[in-house]
Amino acid sequence: GQDVPWWQKAVGYQIYPRSFQDSNGDGIGDIPGIIARLDHLADLGVGFVWLSPVYASPQVDMGYDISDYRAIDPAYGTLDDMDRLIAEAGARGIRIVMDLVVNHCSDRHDWFLKAVADPSAPEHDYFIWRDPGPDGGPPTDARSVFGGPAWTLVPELGRYYFHQFAPGQPDLDWQNPDLRAAIHEMMNWWLDRGIGGFRLDVIDLIGKDPDAGVFAEGPDLHPFLREMHDAAFRGRDTLTVGETWSVTPETALLYCGRDRDELDMVFQFEHVTAFHHPERGKWDPLPFDLPVFKRTLFRWQEALRDDGWNALFLSNHDLPRQVSRYGDDGEWRVRSAKALATAIHLLRGTPFVYQGEEIGMTNTRFTDPDEFRDIEAIGHWAEARARGEELEDFLTGVNANGRDNARTPMQWSDAPNGGFTTGRPWIGVNPNHAEINVAADRADPDGVVAHYRRLIGLRRDRRIVSHGQFVAHAEGHPQVMAYARELDGERLSVVVNLCAQPVSFRVPKGLEVEGESLSANVTPRTQVRGTLDLAPYEAFAVMGP
Ligand code: ISL
Ligand code: CA
């Protein structure tokens, strides 16, 4: 088709390497394991992989604490394995987009070791150091995302360093031009190795001013991103997508507007945080509310209608499994998994599939804190227990929104450990792997994989899916998500019943169409008009003049 960037017609697939496929029986996923499973991705038809961190790391935060940006963690493999992954994926038309974690590094990184050993070393100023506060304690009352203060004292220096996340994740001081140059150099080293781009971890935080209590979207953020673009992205055919929890429809184009020369896309999270309790956050989930869900997604479609580009997702390694959070992981698991996929994949933007989403994997059930592997849950349970909170109350939050739900091993077959490992898995495998696994789902021509493969193909082959204008419909409808895409006098009408009850849906005038069934999870339809009787979680798309 016309010269649109490759990533506007592709679907991404996020791999969490620790949980995807173990190849050597140590219970930890690895790069050779990923290579062994590339045909699954090629069959799905995805155009690129977002690979969560595989760099050297003490694994305090599962690799989001990097101790050497130019080395692969031995548990995951070697740089040769990485080069092989890039080549093998490339041979299948799949680019490897790497996770880049540069808001912070690990406290085991050579830079931090030097910073502590010698305050006069240049690396000392790669970090944010402050004297103790007047009471001898932390300089400010800033809190870590994982619980506890965001400042930790280094006794031998008598100074505190800032860490938005764990103490093992000291923030890098982006005000330091030498640090920025070192990061840009590393980025080019990876891009020259043939990767397809970067997913930039919590990139909205790099302009922070901790003394002023400004953490997200600080005054220097966009100048830093423009400098990064000029230093590493300009002239390359890469994809850059920023993780920006603070972005709003009003600020999105500052990152990804066509003339901004910063990033291509951002991950926004309003459809996620809309269901977090205003005070207690994700640990006290609010009930799903479809009008709120739709209003958020539709608002973002409007905001980026003529410029910028949406990143579309419901799942990732930090989020609960979407069929549990937004669908029905019981009676209607398969059909609601397809319905959610239809709802997301036919919007305007680039969809991201998180590993396991394509077979309708579900949340697991934690009953004991000893089962937690995520530093965030461990840290927040420690604080909740100190506040006297009951375990079962905290478990309600962990089972609804805990990050480990997404990190249980990929379920490939009904073999022990779901075929993920022949060893002892680093985290418990979801007991339902005997029924829910890739082999079982693929054996069903009407399986979830088949549904995803078709949706991914539509984005690649149908310009109305990749570039048709979005038109919202029935915004207030409590059970049905409906919208149209329009291009060159054709209309694609998408209707999704996102509840477990049958619904009688009166088709709005602007949604009416008659023509070709592009997708359906119950029976194919060729007409959208009048009043339709929708089955529970029925989803379909019809295209016509
Ligand atoms: O959801 C969160 C905030 O409400 C946190 O779980 C998470 O830290 C946040 O989404 C930022 O995530 C990214 O940075 C973290 C890392 O733990 C996450 O895995 C990563 O996606 C620190 O690098
Ligand atoms: Ca392994």
TrEMBL record:
Domain named Glycosyl hydrolase family 13 catalytic is located at 14-407
EC number(s) stated in the UniProt entry for this protein: 3.2.1.10
SUPFAM superfamilies recorded = (Trans)glycosidases, Glycosyl hydrolase domain
Query: What name has this protein been given in UniProt?
Result: Oligo-1,6-glucosidase
Kindly give the Gene3D superfamilies that the UniProt entry links to this protein.
Glycosidases (3.20.20.80), Golgi alpha-mannosidase II (2.60.40.1180), Oligo-1,6-glucosidase, Domain 2 (3.90.400.10)
Q: Pfam families given for it?
A: Alpha-amylase, Malt_amylase_C
Q: Which organism is it from?
A: Jannaschia rubra
Q: What class of enzyme is it?
A: hydrolase
Q: Which domain of life is it from?
A: Bacteria
Task: State any single GO MF term.
Answer: oligo-1,6-glucosidase activity
Q: Which gene is the coding source of this polypeptide chain?
A: malL_1
Q: Which family does it belong to?
A: Belongs to the glycosyl hydrolase 13 family.
Residues annotated as signal peptide: none
